[in-house]
Design a protein that fits this description.
Layout lengths: L11 E5 L4 H13 L4 E6 L27 E4 L5 H10 L4 E4 L11 H22 L2 E7 L20 H19 L5 E6 L1 E3 L12 H10 L5 E3 L6 E2 L1 E3 H10 L7 E5 L5 E2 H12 L6 E3 L16 H7 L7 H20 L1
Parallel strand pairs: 1-2, 1-4, 2-3, 4-5, 5-6, 6-11, 7-10, 8-13
Antiparallel strand pairs: 9-12
Helix pairs in contact: 1-6, 3-4, 5-7, 5-9, 7-9
Length: 336
């Protein structure tokens, strides 16, 4: 589906983090809707290297790009020589910056800031020099424990990941204020789920994780009082819609990307059971994260509607139903 009147054919588009969840969905969006677009897919593909927490340093996986016909480049956005070569070799019209250390449990603060903040500014300079629209991934993690509805300008990050994304937003505003004619949009994703997230491993959404639990014949395990733990869950197709609409904003800035409706983890389990035809009794376990856990997130979507013309089209029921065939495929191909 084409979400606005922009013709991306014959445009040169850089997608960083293109072998990841959102980046790969963007790559295929352009391939399917604008076959003459010149899409450059840059990713630091996984190598087996891990952080001190044991999680992979990169979730980029070649399987997310199987069928992609554009240009694929393996590289690290921290490599300034690589960025210089890209800036010389191509003349970008649009940059979709999705690459980041997105694991909220990573404790290497130095690498988090270098990768998420400093490398972003280098890419932003390229965008400005090329007169390219910059659309980048911010995060709902910037809000931390801020009360709902989470609103731009009322941030309280509780980890270095959320802090790094807030610093990206601050950099963006500084450039916007210096030159209001440039187009820079930061998108604060809330809880995204959908196809091509599987290779995020245990950081993938509870939707796919619960789905595979059920397909294994196991009852879903939830924290006690999960009907009171609410999140703003948004389907990947709506995230792609937001990225495309961010290419023609009414004004540059940082915008929430959510549904504006908080739903419970219990609701996810119940919808999955209905769609998969299972009827297991939910098992409840004590929540070990009380005191350090977000119990309610819900995006304030007013500015996003007014300045991006963005409004989520998928309710949680619709998104999970659309996702079910891929959850089943992954279970048969990757999990069994």
């Amino acid at each position: 589906m084409k979400y606005n009147d922009i013709d991306f054919n014959n445009k040169t588009i850089l997608i960083t983090g293109a072998a990841g969840f959102i980046g790969s969905n963007l790559a295929f969006y352009f391939q399917e809707n604008f076959p003459d677009a010149n899409v450059i897919a840059l990713d630091c593909f996984r190598s087996g290297q891990t952080f001190s927490n044991g999680n992979l340093k990169s979730f980029g996986h070649f399987k997310n790009l199987i069928g992609f016909k554009g240009t694929v480049i393996s590289g690290d956005i921290n490599d300034t020589d690589l960025l210089k070569r890209l800036a010389i070799q191509y003349s970008f019209d649009y940059i979709f910056h999705q690459a980041a250390i997105s694991d909220t449990t990573v404790s290497e603060q130095d690498l988090m800031i270098k990768t998420n903040v400093n490398a972003y500014e280098e890419l932003l300079k390229i965008a400005i020099n090329h007169n390219a629209n910059m659309v980048y991934a911010s995060s709902g993690a910037t809000y931390g424990d801020a009360s709902s509805p989470q609103t731009v300008g009322k941030e309280a990050p509780s980890n270095v990941y959320g802090f790094s994304k807030l610093m990206m937003d601050n950099i963006s505003y500084s450039y916007i204020n210096k030159n209001p004619n440039i187009s820079i949009v930061g998108l604060r994703y809330f809880n995204v789920y959908g196809p091509r997230e599987f290779y995020k491993n245990k950081t993938a959404s509870t939707v796919v994780q619960f789905g595979h639990q059920l397909l294994k014949g196991n009852a879903p395990k939830l924290f006690e009082e999960s009907d009171k733990i609410l999140r703003d869950f948004i389907y990947i197709e709506d995230v792609i819609q937001a990225n495309i609409k961010a290419c023609a904003p009414l004004k540059s800035g940082v915008y929430n990307v959510g549904t504006g409706k908080a739903r419970s983890f219990q609701a996810i389990a119940d919808i999955l059971q209905k769609e998969l035809g299972t009827n297991f009794e939910t098992q409840y376990i004590p929540n070990p994260y009380i005191g350090q856990y977000q119990f309610h997130t819900e995006a304030n979507m007013q500015d996003s509607k007014e300045n991006l013309d963005f409004e989520a089209r998928y309710e949680l029921e619709d998104g999970i139903k659309a996702y079910i065939p891929e959850i089943k495929r992954l279970f048969n191909d990757e999990v069994k």
